Amino acid sequence: MSFCTVGSKGGDFGSVSGGTFGCSSVLQRLVRWRNLRLLLVLIVVVCIMFLTIWRKSEEPEDTNPFRKYVQQHEAERSDYLAVQAKEQQLSANILTPVPKPVSMSPKKPRILYYNRHSACHANMVQITSRLGLDFETFNPGFLGGLGMNGNRADDIINDGLVRLICDAVDIIIVADTMPDARPLIQSLVRETPKERCKANIVLELTTRFDWGVPDKQEYYRLNWQLSSSAPQNLYWVTNNAFEPLDLSYEALATPLFRMLRPTGHSTLEPQNIPEADKNLALCRIDKHSAVFAMMQQMKIPFKHIKGGYGGPKTLAQYKAFIEFPYQVSTMKLYENLAAGIIMLIPSPEFLRELIEKDLHSFGPWDKIARAGKDWHIYMDYYSPDIAPYVYYFRSFEHLKELITSSAPLDFKNVRTEAPKAYERLVKRALHGWADLFGEMGYQVSVDGKAHKQGEDGPEPYRAPLYNPELSPPKTNQEWNREFQKLELWKNKMRTDRAQLATESRKQITDQEMDAYMLSLEYKNPSAKTVLKIDLDKIGTDIDAKLVNLLDFLNGEAEDKLSNPFGGSLVGISALEVEKILSAGLKTLHEIVMAVPSNAIIETSNYSLISKLHRSFRILNQLFHDGLPTLSIAANKSVTHLTSLLSKQEISNFQRKKQVLQKTLYPWAFSLKFTTFPSLMSSFSHLKGIVMTFGNAGFERGLLTILHLRKNLQSTLPVEVFYNGKTDLDYEFIEALTRLDGVTVKNLQDVFSGLEEERNFHNKPLAILASTFQKVMYLDSDVILFQTPETLLNSSILFKSHGTLFFKGRAYEPGNSKWIRWFLKFPSRMSETMGRFMRDLTKDEMDASLMLFDKTRVDVVNGLLSAVHLNLREVREGGLDKHLQGAVKCTIFIYYANIVCLGDRDTYWVAFELLRIPYTFVPTVAGAIGTCDERPYTVCGPASHVDENQHLLHVNYHSEGTTSLEISDWTKTVTHYVFPVDNAQGFGNVDVTKQPKCVTASLRNNSYEGVVAAEAAVVKVSVKDLEVLEKLRLLSMEMGHNGWEHYLDNHL
Q: Whole-prediction pTM value?
């Protein structure tokens, strides 16, 4: 691979030619470095071995903001005065013109272009040719991939390559990927002067300065050191306004920058396009994006192209170019301006809306949005010196209007005026480069004419710091302190932006939701091979018909049923019900017959998947051979429906039932189980407890199990599941198996094709994989006050529904729009009794303790769907953004520093989807701890009572209490509160305190048997305090000498 090129005016990028930095076999072998003899040979080959002496002028003190750069374009941006007014309020420092050096050399400098990007190379060819200069190219790719770390840079310095390069040239211009030059700039902070690069270094930032760097904090410190010490041979250049701001916001580094625009030159010759295309706007956007889907749905006329479009001269033949920016600046933007292309770009407000609704992907949004309401000023597409030559559309409707209007599109005369204006920008940039070389002591001309130092080029400026009242740190200690504050500020900004995005998604339209979900489906690499079913041909009321069938199977056609779960058949006559059922069975047949054997279904196609999951549940209940006996009511419904089917339809349904189970749940029916009955038959033990945790949760899980055995005297068997060999260490597995009645299992041995995840999403898999018929699931940090046997045997709700769910704390109103998009026709129960579907809260359920009766076919069906909703490819982009914890999950996806709230709402959603009756314990999660000064308020971790209002369990690592130590917390417990459910739906959680405080609602409750708010704060009983004391002693004993010592001495 070539890593050095030489040639006049830069030569051909990537080619190998002779000259000072030709790729001889000697240099190829120098990659091995340590051979000093080869190093000496190469130095001899170098033609020019003298050192250029320069003197850099002193930097005058800063005065005004970067905006002064923009103000020089006053005449060209008369229609952009509003933006200018905002700009003048921003704070940054600008330099007065740099004094002319004392002496200027007419000699051409030896320039090395340190770069791996072809477009940057082409741009530098144009710049140097118009300045009468030449350069040689060094491609640093052979030194490694993108993002060099500090140790690697030190090795390169120590092995002499930096000195070799710097001694051979006068100027090194680093472009595109700044970390490539880390050895050069890192040498500048070396204590020994001879180790420092002697050549002038120009850092030309065209993209993020920290691209791919692994040791970011040390790299940021290096950039601050360079900015603070300002070595006289180091110069900073940018081609857009954002890069200096990013450097400031990441590293607290504010060096002097020159804004030097690219030339926008393109060597591509025009290509002929069809005559009909000349009346169309061209758009090169991902065909699988939500934006593309929106434009198609709205019938916006445009020519779509994939890949290259032939350059700006070809693009100029189209009516316009539609672009949805994915970066703050691109080379094609400058090329299009120089060529007079009519560009249609979303307005800043519309682009922000698309990003926050997740309809468009914009890579640097997290970074640029930190600039606040004026973020767009740092984006070249909206820069005041470029904005007059761009057309902005405020919505998709506005875009359609611009393209289809009979009025002339180019009312700004962009085709003529943009090239003139951009050439003026290029001229200023060329004079800026000339000023830069002049500071180094080199006299250059611009287009063959003499250049006057400091007259026609842009003035240097400094980007603002994140805090306008902050001065740049002067010492390493100051930088450390301010860097910590900066990190806190960035985290807060991320949380705020995620919250704004959550609010924006509440405003998403049905049309936008369709486009968004379609884009999720297409993002899967296998999308081209997956099953496609034309649902429109089957009908527009598919979900309504499936819901009717499911409600009938639930026995809801009975006149005596006073409180139906689903409610779709309420008030319908028996004759009409017969017609509805016949139509439903016909639609069901059309759907399942459209699914071929060995089909692959796109897992994130929520609309299709929801219909197929519902279809499978119907077939599974209609044809239940080998499954547990159904109830009398269910059998009656099944008998009635099958009587409406022909023999051929029955045969088809039975055959397609087998196809559907493998199509929908390939992970379940391909390893240990082959059919649904074989899965059901694996539930061979009557009752038991299921837990799942990895290495991080081992000690908590061990404490919980010992609490069950020692303090509560529970003898129920326990199955602990982990996911993959690296999830739970062997010593932990061995320790758990020493406990009576505890077995440890790997989920990979039960189900196939699972990702080795380390989070909450393993829970439904563990529940399904367990051998228990009646399951109590416990999180590893749950403290029980009652024995598991008591709850499993006495709960009326569990006996009647086959499940027992608990309501979680609620922090703010929710938004059910996304769930309603694919979960058509929610049940009457969720619409009247649930909180999420009424938009009362985004937090419906707490999943730290759940009960499931797996002898029920419908419950197992629900668990299969719950697992599906927890698959990574299903939840990312959908559930993670639109269910509970949307803010935290959004941050987690992009920054991996805040954990999603996990799986908890997927259970009731799965049961709701399949129309399986479920209910919640009436009260909302409260708190257990100490009483606050406010009435009816308790502060502490989340607590739950059972359906009889007796204290049942505590999740002591719930939000806001993760740092609590059991031994400390248990000594302070006096009260607990269980806020009643009410019209508002949540229990007044105060999130400003740690641990969080909960106030009982003062409104009347809507459930019979739930105590009034005045009685909802309860003193912890003596019996429950005794349980906590036993737990405290157990925790202290385990913590004193470690869990190994405890097990050795107590088992």
A: 0.70
